[in-house]
Specification:
Layout lengths: L7 H6 L4 H99 L4
Length: about 120
């Protein structure tokens, strides 16, 4: 049974009995307990949300660190590929020069053999 709330108008109308005051006090206690429960639930939800946010921030930081490491590894590989490409170009150039020198030497030997009339 819900009793009417005390207002200045109702207080002037008629005095409340002890039972009615006790009922109002019990209702107020129940309301306060309900509010305390809601506050506890809200605090728990806020704590859970904070924990989830901190976990997400940690994972983001770990992902950023891993991404940076991969970027550095990629840069090192690209540097190595560039170095090997330059080495390969130098080796091809040296090979071409050797082939040309060999051909010139063979032409010279052939010319020498043709002039002397010798055979191999």
């Amino acid at each position: 049974m819900k009793t009417p709330a005390i207002t200045p108008e109702s207080a002037a109308e008629a005095p409340l009995s002890v039972a009615q005051l006790q009922l109002q006090l019990d209702e107020l206690r129940l309301r306060v307990q309900g509010m305390e429960g809601k506050l506890k639930d809200s605090a728990a939800a806020r704590k859970s949300a904070d924990q989830a946010r901190m976990d997400a921030e940690r994972r983001l930081a770990e992902g950023a660190q891993e991404s940076d490491q991969l970027r550095q590894a990629l840069l090192a590989r690209e540097t190595e590929v560039t170095r090997l490409g330059a080495e390969l170009m130098a080796a091809r150039q040296a090979h071409a020069e050797l082939v040309e020198r060999l051909a010139a030497a063979q032409r010279g030997d052939d010319a020498h053999l043709n002039c002397t009339g010798g055979s191999r």
